[in-house]
Amino acid sequence: MSAISTRDLTVTAPHGQRLLNKLSFDLAKGERVGLIGESGSGKSLTAAALCGLLRPPLSMTSGDLILNGISMRGAPPSLWRSHRGRNVFQIFQSPASALTPARRVGPQLEEAARIAGARARDVIPNVLDKVALPSGVARQFPYQLSGGMKQRVLIAMALILRPAVLIADEPTTGLDILTELDILTALSSAVTETGATLLFISHDLHAVQEVADRVLVMQSGEIVEDGSIKMLGQSGASAARQLTEAADRLRTKPC
Ligand SMILES: Nc1ncnc2c1ncn2[C@@H]1O[C@H](COP(=O)(O)OP(=O)(O)OP(=O)(O)O)[C@@H](O)[C@H]1O
After folding, report:
1. ipTM of the predicted structure?
2. Of 70, 85, 107, 216, which one's alpha carbon is 20 to 30 angstroms from that of 197?
3. What domains does the chain contain, in order, with CATH numbers?
4. What is the pLDDT of residue 252?
C-alpha cells in the first residue's frame, strides 16, 4: 500500500481554469520524492491538496486522494484534522505561518507531543538536541527566532509527530547557503529516523538532489515527468530538460 496516492486529482478555479489537472502518482512508504517546476506550475497547490488545506473557493473538483488507504475525496474538515500531524505534516516555505506567533515554542512542541501521545518532557529536549537548537528556544516566541531556527522547530515537530508523509514546501527559501545545507541535513536525518515518506517541493534541482532520488516535474498544473533525477536531462518533457539545463548553467556560472 502506498503512503499517499492521487488519482486524476483535479482542482478547478471558480472561473473554470484547471489549476491542477488530473494528477496521478503514488508515493511508496519511506520513499523520498522531489516535486519541481517553474513558478506557478502548481507545486504549492498540490501540497495544499495533499494536506487538505485548499482554501475556498478552491477544492478538489474531481479525482481522488488516498491517504493511508483512505479516500479523502469530499472528506470533512474533522477527518482532515485527524490526519494532519500524524499521517501528513507540512513544513511550509514560510515557517512563521506554521507557528502560532503569540505562543512560545515550548507549548507548541508540547501540543505536538500530546497529538503523538508522547511525554513532552521526555521528547522535547531530545528533538531540540537533534535539530541543534538550544533548550532555551522553548521559552522564546517564534518572532524571536531566525528563519533557519523556525524551520528547525518545524523539523523538531516532525520528529515528535513522526508523520507517515512529510511534505516540505520550499523549506530553505530565503536562507543563506550554509543554513540551507544544515536544514536539508536535519530534514534528511528526520526522514531517516522516522521512516516518513518525503515529498520535497522546490524549484531548485540541486536542493532536490540532496534529499530525493525520484522527481515529479510539474508544468501548467500537470505532472509532465516522473522518474529518476539522473535521467531528467534525457526526459521527453521539455520542462524537465529546461530545468536540468538551467540548474547546470547556474552551477557552472563563474562567480
Ligand atoms: N486561491 C487561488 N485562486 C486562484 N488561483 C490560484 C490560487 N492559488 C494559486 N492559484 C494559481 O494556481 C497556479 C499554481 O500556483 P502555485 O502556488 O501552486 O504555484 P507554485 O508552482 O507553487 O509556484 P511558486 O514556485 O512560485 O511558489 C498559479 O497560476 C496561481 O496563480
Report:
1. 0.97
2. 107
3. 4-252 (3.40.50.300)
4. 64
